[in-house]
Amino acid sequence: RRIEQQGLQAGLRKRWLAETESNVCEMCQALDGREVGVMVSFGFPASYGNDLAPPRHPNCRCALILVPAS
């Protein structure tokens, strides 16, 4: 929400980064590198947490980075 309040979302996107150095689940591997708008859902069922950001499930080691919109 802080990004939205500061008005930065127009020039940014978020990119899902799956932990790839060890065992990564198929669910997270499928999202690795996917980019969406800052306040846009990644489009998976919100079974744990929410679908805007990791964690996707218990013990999830994924992260997000902000990237410039192209």
Helix share of residues?
10-25%
Question: Mind summarizing the main beta sheet?
Answer: 3 strands, antiparallel
Quote the beta fraction: 15-25%
Q: Could you name the ranges where pLDDT drops below 50 across 5 or more consecutive residues? A: none
**Overall geometry:** globular
Structural class: alpha+beta
Major sheet strand order:
2-1-3
- Distance between the ends: 22 Å
Which H/E pattern describes the elements? HEHEE
Give the total of beta strands: 3
Gyration radius from CA atoms, angstroms: 12 Å
Tally the helices.
Answer: 2
Average of the residue pLDDT scores: 81
Describe this structure in words.
The chain has helices at 2-6, 26-31, and strands at residues 12-17, 35-37, 63-68. The chain has 70 residues and is an alpha+beta fold. The model has no long low-confidence stretch (mean pLDDT 81).
Quick structural summary:
This protein has 70 residues and is α+β, with helices and mostly antiparallel strands. It has 2 helices and 3 strands; from the N terminus they run αβαββ.
